[in-house]
Amino acid sequence: MSEINVRQALNDALREEMEADPTVMMMGCDIGVRGGPFGVTLGLQKQFGAKRVKDTPISEPGYTGAAVGAAATGLRPVIEILYSDWLTLCTDQIVNMAAKMRYMFGGKVNMPLVIRAPFGAGGGVAAQHSQSFEAWFNHIPGLKVVAPITPYDVKGMLKAAIRDDNPVMFFEHKRSYQMKGEVPEGDYIVPFGKAAIRREGTDVTIVSYSMISIRAQNAAKELEKEGISCEVIDLRSILPLDYETVMSSIAKTNRVVVCQEANLRGGLAGDIVAEIIDRGFDLLDAPPVRVGAPNVPMPYNAGLEAICIPDEENIKEAVRKVMSND
Amino acid sequence: MSNICKNMRQLLPNLKPLKAPSGLSKAKQEDMLYKMCAIRAFDSRVKELWMASEIYGLAHSYVGAEAIAVGACEAITKDDYISSTHRGHGHTLAKGADTKAMMAELFGKHEGLNLGKGGSMHIADVDIGMLGATGIVGSGMPHALGAALTSDILDNNTVAICFHGDGGTNQGVWHETINMAAAWNLPVIFLIENNQYAIATKLEWVSKEPELYKRAAGYGIEGVLVDGFNVFDVYKAVKKAVDKARKGGGPTLIEARYMRILGHFVADDQAYRDQDEVSDCWTADPVERMKEYLVESETFSQEKVDAVEQAAKDEIEEAIDYARNECTEPPADTLYDDIYANGEVII
Amino acid sequence: MSKIMTLPKIGVNMTEAIIDEWFVKPGDVIKKGDAIFLAETDKATQEIFATDFGTIEKLLAEQGDTVEIHQPIMTLLDEGEQIGEDEFAEEAMQEEQTAPELQAEVQAPAVVEIVIAKAAEPKQTKADTARVRISPLAKKTAKELGLDISKLSPEQPGKRITKSDVMKFEKAQGSAAVREAAVVGTGSSFATMQIKACADNMTLLIKRFGQSGLDIGHIDVVAKAAAVALSKHKGLFFSGDEINIGVEADTQSGAVVPVASGADKKTVGQIKADIDAMSLGNANFVITNLGAFDIESYVPSRNIFGCTTLCAGCVTRSFVPDERDMPKTRSEIKMTLVFDDSAAAGIDAAKFMQKVKQYIENPELMLL
Fold it and tell me: Which residues numbered 84-123 in A keep a CB inside 8 Å of some CB on B?
């Protein structure tokens, strides 16, 4: 085991997969010579050459579509859309082509495509650089969507994504690159569709993913002092989503809080709550509570921004609400 | 050429007399004739079948453009790739797909090329290099670039022909795709099927420079204008571009200029067009011109030409018969199949 | 043999066309693509073109008619055929025309059925007019325990009723439905028996206790008597050594039954204290005291508490014959036992009642 940060975990995953399989290749702006504006792809062009680690022009629809065509003809592309906000530019190729080609073609095409799109809020980068669109892509049959946060999960799930024959939206958190964690030596993957229980508890289940799962764990520690025992689940995999783990936990606690970093309306938490009610209404001793940001475009000002990023206090408040029987 | 009316000669000054290039075998010329007749028969019958509601949804006829698909595909091999548009039947047939499986797909049958899941607008046969028709204008273009990337990285010396229309040239992704192909020197042949109309919008109303091949200069690549009603003119230009690409010479932009004969899709009555122009188009009919040329040049006899045409029509009738009478509906339990790879189902 | 030409669909949303003007008539020779009539469709007035060739035999619709797509509009003869040659044509055409109608008939009932079925679904009328604020889990738990949710209350007024509220209520009520120490048998079959006891000594005892400062009532003595009697008949109505008597107090607390746990080992004063304090416990024997409302005797129609119940009436004055058959007065108390006679034999229950009567009539016997 060694302790590495998320950035290194991504870099290692990409390198190991490209070493193992010559059909894996990468495209994105500034990923080659510069090693990526977030430093994720440092050293990779040097090792694998400019054919396999391609610097693209600012042509998201063009190079996303090229990746779709490459995937259909025998390569395994991993593309980067530097800020997930810009997925709006290339959504046609993802939604209308990558997600649907296998189905429309009666199964007669392969689509092993990974789209890395760092998401998440913070740092004063404001409205067009702070969004999280996992709810949109969760809606599209044919895609897989993951949002790991620990270095262990990040490395294991990126490797799994590259080996998956389906198009995968890989949402790393753009504020997580320095976060450290233990990662084993050698090859391993973290399979999709399995959530991780970060903390066990008996009074309430907190369902979360990505950065907010870290905040949920912090909140749970503090709530212990108030006599509330929280079970914190980090989903890691959004589509497919591990409802088995979620429902087993709720069967134990009978109360649930679902957290997302994105603004509340139309977000993933709403879909999860609806599924929970569908699968286990009678298990609930209180209505489920959601945590999400206010429905505003992310403001620049630091104080206003802080209000728009759900934190430990928001989570604790939600837990107290679900415990209150009000 | 003698039959082409004056009006058409004025509208399309790029029209040229047919002449088979030296070295093009008779067998290949017969194959070209057969495929053109097959496409003509296929899409003519498709229109009738749609009007009788045996085929449904949307279908876009390739009647009038046969020379382009056939001329282009004749210049590449089975291992090469093509990307397509919504008007994909001609591309699929020219690339060599099975007509029975194609017709079954249009009928929505389980035995169709796409197991009944795609229909006319998404017809595909990736195994023979046809990357699929698509209903979003321009969305197939970058796939040709992707195929060229694969060729480059796997070093398999294949090329990709990117079929697209004049409408598609005004999509942002057209610019991005050509730019990247040129900048990376990849083996893509960009083939504009310029029929002058995007549904009812004339090209000259929305493009200040309607001579589309001239745009190539902006990307640092060669631009070529060919007669879209002339199968040999298309063939020659595409062959030259393919050879250049295979040798590492990068992409070429070819504009095959013709005029749309039938409506945009099967129920389009073209009321927005000058009806004289529509009837004039038939005088430049590429299939008739090919038949005429082959007889006049004494390559084949009239009987031979007629027999080839009839054989093509018969093949299409057989395909319709097959689709109507020997095929089955996709079972309801195939609904969730093939959303994901390897039989995985996520409901 | 004539062929039928149908109206082609020429627009994506086209469902029918009105014939404005026929361009052709029977006897005309037409080929594919010839204009045959002027039609008004959903989009515009436009020409309809022939989809087949031949000599027109008969037009099947007239000017002004509305024709649906794929409906026959004319019959055609091939080259060489004569009009009138083929009498089968008309029949064939009739078949074609009726066949779709038949299909429609066959299909229609299904549609009608569905409509009717929907209408027949009665509206769910809710019996409870006041909505109870209760969580789904609590509701389900209450249902499983056979509890009436309208009797439940939340931990604080205004709050939602949760599972723990249900469990508290269930304990307090002494419901035997899920009790491990419950009586064998479900309590669905039950019997009653009545006994009358002389209450003179009990009344005297109460008076004496009162003079020494201990304030008790008849029901407390009855409870003690029942407890001691139960200790002499262990296993009769329930298993286990614990004797927990619930007494339905005459406070207006609704369904809450205070319990004197281990009543056989408690003094009368302790029993009373438990009842006054509304103590909670697992009652396995309940005493109701409608006598507090001057009710002389009460025979319930069902086993309300799910365990053996003794319904005590009020103390009354009566005339009874003495040894010489001369009337004398005494106080009496009537008690009705409600018990599951599939679990406890009637004769054993009777012996128990006799004991209770003895203890009430001679309280000093309880000292033994």
Answer: 92-93, 96-97, 101-112
Q: CATH 3.30.559.10 in chain C, residues?
A: 188-367
Same fold, A2-183 and A196-324: yes
Task: Give bridge partners of residue B82 from the DSSP assignment.
Answer: B130, B161
Q: Which amino acid is at B37?
A: C
Q: Which residues of B touch C44 (CB under 8 A)?
A: 271
Q: How far apart are CA C16 and CA B44, in angstroms?
A: 23
CATH number at residue B222: 3.40.50.970
How many contacts does B have with C, using Cβ atoms within 8 A? 25
Contact A281 C136 (CB under 8 A): yes
The pLDDT tens digits for C276-300 are 888 878 888 999 888 888 888 888 7
- Enumerate the CATH 4.10.320.10 domain ranges in chain C, comma separated: 133-183
Can you give the residue ranges of every domain in chain A?
2-183, 196-324
Q: Range of B146's domain?
A: 6-16+31-325
Kindly name the residue from A60, A261, A305, A312 that is annotated as catalytic. A60
**Residue of A70, A101, A164 lying closest to B150 (CB–CB):** A70
Backbone φ and ψ for A234, nearest 5 degrees, come out as: -105, 110
Looking at residue B130, the DSSP 8-state letter turns out to be: B
The C-alpha atoms of residue B42 and residue B314 are separated, in whole angstroms, by 10
pLDDT surpasses 50 at C116: no
CATH number for the domain running over A196-324: 3.40.50.920
Q: Has residue C117 got a pLDDT over 70? A: no
A28-37, A208-217, C56-65, C69-78: range with highest mean pLDDT: A208-217
Residue of B nearest to C10 (CA): B267
* Other CB atoms within 10 Å distance of the CB of residue B166: 23
DSSP secondary structure letters along C234-267: TTSSSSSS---EEEE-SSS-TT---EETTGGGS-
- Helix, strand, coil percentages for chain C (3-state, nearest 5): 35, 25, 45
Domain A2-183, second-level architecture: 3-Layer(aba) Sandwich (3.40)
Q: In what side-by-side order are the strands of the sheet with A196-199?
A: A196-199, A230-234, A204-208, A256-263, A289-293
The CATH code of the domain at C3-77 is 2.40.50.100
Residue A173 annotated in active site: no
The model's confidence at residue C254, banded by pLDDT at 50, 70 and 90, is low
Whether residue B222 lies inside any domain: the answer is: yes
C240 touches chain B (CB under 8 A): no
pLDDT band for position A207 (cuts 50, 70, 90): very high
Q: What is the token pair recorded at A171?
A: 């949402």
What residues of chain C have any CB closer than 8 angstroms to a CB in chain A?
A: 135-140, 154-155, 158-160, 162-163
Residue B335 inside a domain? The answer is no
Name the domain count of chain B.
Answer: 1
Closest CA to C49 of C66, C13, C25, C24: C24
**Beta carbons of A196 and A216 less than 8 angstroms apart:** no
Alpha carbon of B92: minimum distance to chain A alpha carbons (Å): 13
Active site residue A60: yes
| Pairwise CA distance, residues C247 & C260, whole Å | 8
Into which CATH architecture does domain C133-183 fall?
Irregular (4.10)
Tell me which CATH code domain C188-367 carries: 3.30.559.10
Neighbour order of strands in the sheet with A53-55: A53-55, A24-28, A76-80, A114-116, A168-170, A144-146, A237-239
